[in-house]
Amino acid sequence: MTDMQIMREITPLSPEDCFYVVDRRKTAFDYPVHCHPEYELNFIEHAAGACRVVGDSMESIGDYELVLVAGADLEHGWEQGSCTSTAIREITIQWDAAWLSDALLQKNQFRSIRQMLESHLA
Questions:
Q1: Can you tell me the distance from the alpha carbon of 101 to that of 50, in angstroms, rounded to the nearest whole number?
Q2: Model pLDDT for residues 59-69, shown as the tens digit of each residue
Q3: For strand 88-95 and strand 19-26, is the pairing parallel, antiparallel, or unpaired?
Q4: How many CB atoms lie within 10 A of CB 70?
């Protein structure tokens, strides 16, 4: 990541929303590294060689990518890197951390998600 300011994104989630989903088709990664308090799940395909930036980690990605950004104001984004694809697909799901209530996380189906979040926040 080059020496730059981290953008603070204001997501389109409203207090009346459970989550926000967007399916983008793009020819390049041009959105800056940013942060926001909401959780975010990103699926990216056809972007081999792009560079994933999450916190202090930078890694080149393969043709398929699935990343959970779970941490208040965790800096993240994708940079073009050596990606030459012009048929990139990016699906993003954002939600407020409060949506994952304790009651929901105690259900059997959410056990592994609860354990992952607990280990991340520890």
A1: 34
A2: 999 999 999 99
A3: antiparallel
A4: 17
